[in-house]
Amino acid sequence: MTEQNPLQKFPMEPEDIDRLVAEFYKRIRAHPMLGPIFARAIAPEDGPQWRAHEAKIAAFWRNAIGMDASYDGNPMQIHRANRDIHPGMFSTWLDLFHTTAADVLSPEKAAAISALADRIGQSLRYGVTMRDQERGAPPVLR
Ligand code: HEM
Fold first, then answer.
1. Which residues contact 41 (CB under 8 A, 6 or more apart)?
2. How far is the CA of 13 from the centre of ligand 1 (A)?
3. pLDDT, tens only, 51-86
4. Phi, psi for 6 (deg, rounded to 5)
5. In whole angstroms, what is the distance from residue 90 CA to residue 4 CA?
6. How far is the CA of 75 from the centre of ligand 1 (A)?
7. 120: burial class by Cβ within 10 Å (0-12, 13-18, 19+)?
8. Which of 16, 69, 70, 130 lies 20 to 30 A from 63 at CA?
9. Is the pTM here over 0.90, yes or no?
10. Taking the mean position of all CA atoms in its chain, how far away is CA 112?
């Protein structure tokens, strides 16, 4: 086990994140609703663009947990800008994340990162809901 940053929010190893992220996006690619959204934004087939996306997402999680600060991005802006993403999709994304975490991590680690995902997901969902309301369009509830 590597020495952990004392500011880290809960126990987690970089290898745990890598395993979770690889399996989660494998399932995302195969998902009937979410797969096509990612295929458009990242790449239609598995390959180098997906590895780059997964590396970025792993950095995002290490940053969110307080393991390191190698992620420098703006997920709120990215999700608001992607017009394929609607508020009603977040529960599906989060369910898939919870199931994957439970399959690849210890119960404690799965619970901790799932709770963090829920909090971030709530905030992103709110941002996307506001985007739709700002346009004066009725929210798309799917
Ligand atoms: C409705 C649920 C979601 C969908 C459909 C979705 C979809 C996407 C897509 C397609 C991208 C690629 C970037 C782009 O569109 O240009 C992306 C990036 C990203 N997503 Fe999501 N996402 C969802 C929820 C979440 C949640 C809940 C989190 C975090 C807990 C998250 C974290 C990220 C991050 C960190 C990136 C990279 C942002 C960057 O480029 O710096 N996403 N997402």
1. 82, 84
2. 22
3. 999 999 999 999 999 999 999 999 999 999 999 999
4. -60, -20
5. 31
6. 6
7. middle
8. 130
9. yes
10. 14
For residue 136 the two structure tokens come to: 């004066």
If one residue of 25, 78, 126 were mutated to test the ligand 1 pocket, choosing by the most ligand atoms within 8 A of its CB, it would be 78
What does the domain layout of the chain look like in residue ranges? Answer: 14-133
List the structure tokens of 57. 């997402």
**CATH of 14-133 given 1.10.238.10, 1.10.490.10, 1.10.3720.10, 3.30.565.10:** 1.10.490.10
In angstroms, what CA-CA distances link 23 with 53, 57, 66, 130? Answer: 13, 12, 22, 31
21 CB contacts (<8 Å, ≥6 apart)? Answer: 54, 57, 58, 61
Q: What average pLDDT score do residues 110-124 get?
A: 98
